Amino acid sequence: MGRQPCCEKNGLRRGPWTIDEDHKLMTFILNNGIQCWRLVPKLAGLMRCGKSCRLRWINYLRPDLKRGAFTEAEEDMIIQLHARLGNRWSKIAAQFPGRTDNEIKNHWNTRIKKKMKFLGLDPRTHHPIEQHHNVEPILKLENGESTSSHTIFNNDKIKEENNNISIDKTPTIEDIGYMMMSHDHQLESCTTSFELEFPQTWIDSPGFQWDAFNDPGLSFH
DNA sequence: AATCGGGGCAACCGCACGCTT
DNA sequence: TAAGCGTGCGGTTGCCCCGAT
């Protein structure tokens, strides 16, 4: 015997919530609290199923929700928690008061995953995608060519424009980020390459700037 | 100005789990 | 012990917005 659906589907509204529905749900919950989600829509006068009401409340209407973009510290923490917990979004969200599991999951899928791939890390395992440590993140340039962060870092022209960066050391993520932020021209030549530090150290770097990857001239694979 | 495509986010779906009967 | 029920969770979908063409 299969499970009963959580509600009768017939006659119930679906899709985006209206302001009036939000108002009804919020007023009801603030006045009466939540005893049984199945009863909430009936008592609140809503043509929604209880499950939909619960989701709307948790993800959008709760007064303690924190709005706005994720900070770099939050992103770093999400990555660390994901490495430990995997896709247990509710457990991860529990560490972020005011954030929802849905919000964190969406942020992971739309932003952090891409950035990890750029760093040569598998978002599922947090291990390098390649077997070797010298994984080169691949960048696509405006002119359609592909290159790597190594190439950018070792480009003579960029070196000239970033003379505050030593070329005799392994670049830090700050170095790469700085150079990528100022990258507004196409590469003309490649020079010697070097071994990158293990990518995980980039993420752990306290000065790591994700914004470095928003350079309009670059896109991620 | 119109169209297209991609990104981001809200919401839905189905399953799992724990509690009750 | 098994069935029913309510809720939570994670994956997926669909829609809207915005930038590019």
From TrEMBL:
Alphabetized UniProt keyword annotations: DNA-binding, Homeobox, Nucleus, Repeat, Transcription, Transcription regulation
Gene Ontology biological-process entries: regulation of primary metabolic process; response to other organism
Annotated compartments: Nucleus
Superkingdom of the source species: Eukaryota
Key word Transcription regulation present: yes
Domain HTH myb-type: 9-61, 62-116
Span of domain Myb-like: 9-61, 62-112
UniProt-recorded Gene Ontology molecular function terms: transcription cis-regulatory region binding
Entry annotated with the keyword Metal-binding: no
Gene3D superfamilies cross-referenced by the UniProt entry: Homeodomain-like (1.10.10.60)
CDD domains: SANT
Gene Ontology CC terms, in alphabetical order: nucleus
PANTHER family noted in UniProt: F14D16.11-RELATED (PTHR47994)
Name listed for the protein in its UniProt record: Homeodomain-like protein
Protein's organism: Artemisia annua
Organism placement in taxonomy: Eukaryota, Viridiplantae, Streptophyta, Embryophyta, Tracheophyta
